């Protein structure tokens, strides 16, 4: 199996519809009621957007549920999917704090959530590039 590297992936834009739907199914009855079934949600989530505002509306849907408490759920599934389905051995995960300030989620909190999910042997980078 050939392993690859992904050098630029955004946390907010990397959530696949199935993962988000499963989160809503377990924690957000209002969203499940809005779409009723996964197929309707997937259609909404994956349809092309015509304007930047339409895209940002979708983006805020994802980012509004990415809180300090839920980050492990989303990050773990993102990392697992990247390895299992995309053969990624290296993933440089990006995070844009501009929109997240609305939800009180800061870069340091995202970094800590990622580091807590990784086994110690994969965290050598924090010694070379310490978090501030």
Identify the notable features of this structure and list them briefly.
mainly alpha, 132 residues, disordered C terminus, 8 helices
TL;DR of this structure?
The chain has 132 residues and is mostly helical. The protein has helices at 17-27, 29-35, 38-46, 52-63, 71-86, 97-100, 107-117, 125-128, and strands at residues 4-10, 88-94.
Structure in words:
With about 130 residues, the chain is mainly alpha-helical. Helix 1 (about 15-25) crosses helix 2 (about 30-35). It contains 8 helices and 2 strands. It is globular, with a radius of gyration of 16 Å. Strands 1-2 form a two-stranded parallel ribbon. The model is unreliable at about 130 (pLDDT under 50). The protein has helices at about 15-25, 30-35, 40-45, 50-65, 70-85, 95-100, 105-115, 125-130, and strands spanning about 5-10, 90-95. Helix content is about 55%, strand content about 10%.
Helix content: 55-70%
Number of helices: 8
User: DSSP strand (E) fraction?
Assistant: 5-15%
Order of helices and strands: EHHHHHEHHH
Radius of gyration, whole Å: 16 Å
What best-fitting shape do the alpha-carbon axes yield? Answer: globular
- Calculate the mean pLDDT score and round it: 79
Task: Please give the largest β-sheet.
Answer: 2 strands, parallel
Based on helices, strands and strand pairing, what is the structural class? Answer: mainly alpha
Number of strands: 2
Strands ordered across the widest β-sheet = 1-2
Termini separation (Å)?
36 Å
Which stretches of 5+ consecutive residues score pLDDT under 50? 128-132
């Amino acid at each position: 199996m050939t392993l690859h590297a992904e050098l630029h992936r955004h946390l907010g834009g990397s959530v696949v519809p199935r993962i988000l739907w499963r989160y809503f199914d377990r924690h957000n009855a209002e969203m499940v009621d809005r779409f009723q079934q996964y197929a309707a949600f997937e259609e909404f989530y994956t349809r092309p957007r015509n304007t930047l505002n339409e895209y940002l509306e979708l983006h805020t849907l994802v980012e509004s549920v990415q809180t300090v408490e839920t980050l492990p759920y989303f990050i773990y599934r993102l990392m697992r999917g990247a390895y299992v389905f995309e053969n990624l051995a290296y993933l440089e995960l990006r995070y844009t704090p501009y929109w997240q300030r609305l939800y009180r989620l800061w870069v340091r909190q995202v970094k800590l959530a990622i580091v807590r999910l990784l086994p110690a042997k994969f965290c050598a980078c924090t010694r070379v590039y310490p978090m501030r």
